[in-house]
Write a structure and sequence with these properties.
Structural class: alpha/beta
Order of helices and strands: EEHEHEHEHEHHHHHHHHHHHHHHHHH
Strand order of the largest sheet: 1-6-5-2-3-4
Number of helices: 21
Number of strands: 6
Largest sheet: 6 strands, mixed
CATH architecture of the largest domain: 3-Layer(aba) Sandwich
CATH superfamily of the largest domain: HUPs
Distance between the termini: 69 Å
CATH topology of the largest domain: Rossmann fold
Radius of gyration: 23 Å
Shape: globular
C-alpha cells in the first residue's frame, strides 16, 4: 500500500491511531463511523474526515450506527438517538454528502458492516468516547481493518489525551484545567465542517453491502413506535416527552442562555425554580457540542481570553473573568463534566467499586455491617416504593422523564446507600437504575455522580456516622428545609399516592 501524507488541522492531541495500517489512496471514500458525536457541526471527528477526503481527493461516507445489543437498549434511548439521526440525514443531504444510517436488528452486525465498508475505504475515522463498551467495539473493528483507523476526540474543551493521570478531586483537576486550557481554547472544531467541502459525490454503496446490512428505513428514522417494536430492545422503558436531536438541543440551550442563566447561581439547586440547563442528555448523545455552548456563552458575556487570570488557583470563581452566573455554569459544564472523562480515559476500572479512593473503601467497609432502619430491594427502589416521599419523587421523575434534577440526584444516591444491605449493592442499584432510565446514563459524567455518592472526588467528613462512616451524609429532612419543593412533590409524588 502506498504511503500517504495528510495535512492536519484538527489538533494531533485529539487524534489517536488504533492500528498500524496506512491510508489507502486507492480506496473509494473516507469513512466516518459516527457513534458518539452525533452531529454535523462542531465535530472534530467529522472535520478530520473532511480534511482527509479533501487531501486524498475522495468522497466522504458518513455511517451513523445504533447498536441494539446493549444491556440497557430501550425504546427511550433509541427514539432519542433516532430523532438525531433523522436530522443528520437531512444535514448531509443538504451538503451533498452520502449518509448511511444503520440500526441493528441483530446484535453484532454493526462491526460486520463497518469492516465491510472499510475494505472500500481510504481510512476509517470514528469518535473517541472513553467508555468501556465503545472502546471495546472500536478496538475489535480496528483489528480487522486493513486501512488506517483513527479515533478523534470531540468530548470537551480539554482534550482527554492532554492529561496523563487520574485527578482525585475536582479541585486538583480544576487547577490543571486553569494551567492547561488556555493552550487548547484557540483550536475548537469547525462550526460547520460540511460547508463548501466540494468533495466528489459518492455514486453508491456496493449492492452486496446494502443487501446484507440495509440502511434504516424512513419509518424507523421517524422513531415510529411500530418500527421500534420490531427491534430487540427493552420496550418497557418508554420514550420521554421531549425531543432528541440537534435542533432540540440548541433550542434548550438558547432558552437557558436567554432566560435562566442570569439566575443560575440561586436557582439551580431548587427543583421548583427549573433553573438548570437541561443539556445533559444532549451532551451525552453528542447532539450538541460543549465547544458551541462555550463559544455562545463567551459571546453573550462579552468575554475574551485576555480576561483569564494567569494564576491557576483551583478556585471555582474568578479565573475565567466572566460573570458569577457564567462561571458557576462553566464549573459544571467543564470541570465537573470533564473530570469524568479524565477518569474514564485513564482508569479501566472506573465502573467498579474498587475504583473508589482508599479512604472511602476503608470507612464504608468499617460500617458495612451497621444496622439499617430500612433495606429495599432493586424492585422496590425501581418502583419508588420507599417510605420517603421526596426520594420517591426523584425516582418517579427518572422513570417518567429520563432525567432527574441535579440536586435531587445527589440525595437519591445517598439514600440508596443508606437503604441498601451493603455499599456494593447500593452501587449496583444506582448503576442499574441510572443506565436503564436516564438519558444521560452510560456516560463519564453520570458515573462521576454515582461514585461521588460513595466518596469519589470528595474528602472524609465528620462526624463519623453509621453506614456512611466518613462519607458525606445527606438527609431528606435537611433537603426539604433548604429547597423549594412544593411543585416538585406535587408533580412527581402527589400526596396520598
Amino acid at each position: 500500500m502506498a504511503k500517504a501524507t495528510v495535512k492536519v488541522r484538527v489538533p494531533s492531541v485529539r487524534v489517536t491511531s488504533w492500528n498500524d495500517a496506512d491510508f489507502n489512496p486507492q480506496g473509494c471514500f473516507v469513512l466516518y463511523w459516527m457513534t458518539a458525536s452525533r452531529r454535523t457541526t462542531w465535530n472534530a471527528a467529522l472535520e478530520r474526515s473532511v480534511e482527509l477526503a479533501k487531501e486524498l481527493r475522495k468522497s466522504l461516507l458518513i455511517v451513523e450506527t445504533l447498536s441494539s445489543g446493549s444491556r440497557w437498549s430501550s425504546d427511550r434511548h433509541h427514539r432519542f438517538i433516532l430523532q438525531g439521526m433523522a436530522e443528520n440525514r437531512a444535514s448531509c443531504e443538504k451538503h451533498g454528502i452520502r449518509y448511511y444510517p444503520f440500526v441493528e436488528h441483530k446484535q453484532g452486525t454493526t462491526a460486520d458492516l463497518v469492516v465491510a465498508l472499510a475494505s472500500h475505504s481510504c481510512a476509517v475515522i470514528t469518535d473517541d468516547f472513553p467508555m468501556d463498551s465503545s472502546t471495546a467495539e472500536v478496538s475489535h473493528v480496528a483489528r480487522q481493518i486493513g486501512v488506517r483507523t483513527e479515533c478523534v476526540d470531540s468530548n470537551g474543551l480539554l482534550p482527554i489525551r492532554a492529561t496523563d493521570r487520574v485527578f482525585p478531586t475536582a479541585y486538583a483537576f480544576r487547577r490543571f484545567l486553569q494551567r492547561s486550557l488556555p493552550d487548547h481554547l484557540p483550536d475548537p472544531p469547525a462550526a460547520n465542517p460540511l460547508a463548501r467541502t466540494n468533495l466528489p459525490r459518492l455514486g453508491g454503496i456496493p449492492h452486496e453491502i446494502r443487501h446484507r446490512w440495509p440502511p434504516a428505513s424512513s419509518k424507523l428514522l421517524s422513531a415510529d413506535m411500530a418500527a421500534l417494536a420490531r427491534l430487540p430492545i427493552d420496550h418497557a422503558v418508554h420514550p420521554v416527552p421531549f425531543q432528541g436531536g440537534a435542533s432540540a438541543a440548541r433550542k434548550t440551550w438558547k432558552t437557558f442562555l436567554k432566560r435562566k442563566l442570569a439566575n443560575y447561581p440561586g436557582d439551580r439547586n431548587h427543583p421548583d425554580a427549573d433553573g438548570t440547563s437541561g443539556l445533559s442528555a444532549y451532551l451525552h448523545f453528542g447532539h450538541i457540542s460543549v465547544h458551541e455552548v462555550f463559544r455562545e456563552l463567551a459571546e453573550a458575556d462579552g468575554w475574551s481570553p485576555a480576561r483569564v487570570r494567569g494564576q491557576a488557583t483551583g478556585k471555582r470563581e474568578g479565573w475565567w473573568g466572566m460573570s458569577e452566573a457564567s462561571e458557576a455554569f462553566l464549573d459544571e459544564l467543564v470541570t465537573w463534566r470533564e473530570v469524568g472523562f479524565n477518569m474514564c480515559s485513564h482508569a479501566k476500572n472506573y465502573f467498579l467499586y474498587d475504583s473508589l479512593p482508599d479512604w472511602a473503601k476503608s470507612t464504608l467497609a468499617k460500617h458495612a455491617a451497621d444496622r439499617r432502619e430500612y433495606v429495599y430491594t432493586l424492585e422496590e427502589f425501581e418502583q419508588a416504593r420507599t417510605h420517603d416521599r421526596l426520594w420517591n419523587a426523584a425516582q418517579n421523575q427518572l422513570v417518567c422523564e429520563g432525567r432527574m434534577h441535579n440536586y435531587m440526584r445527589m440525595l437519591w444516591g445517598k439514600k440508596i446507600l443508606e437503604w441498601s444491605a451493603h455499599p456494593q449493592e447500593a452501587l449496583d442499584v444506582m448503576i442499574e437504575l441510572n443506565n436503564k432510565y436516564a438519558l444521560d446514563g452510560q456516560d463519564p459524567n453520570s458515573y462521576s455522580g454515582i461514585f461521588w455518592v460513595l466518596g469519589r472526588y470528595d474528602r472524609p467528613w465528620g462526624p463519623e456516622r453509621p453506614i456512611f462512616g466518613k462519607v458525606r451524609y445527606m438527609s431528606s429532612e435537611n433537603t426539604a428545609r433548604k429547597l423549594q419543593l412544593n411543585q416538585y412533590l406535587a408533580d412527581y409524588a402527589p400526596a396520598g399516592k
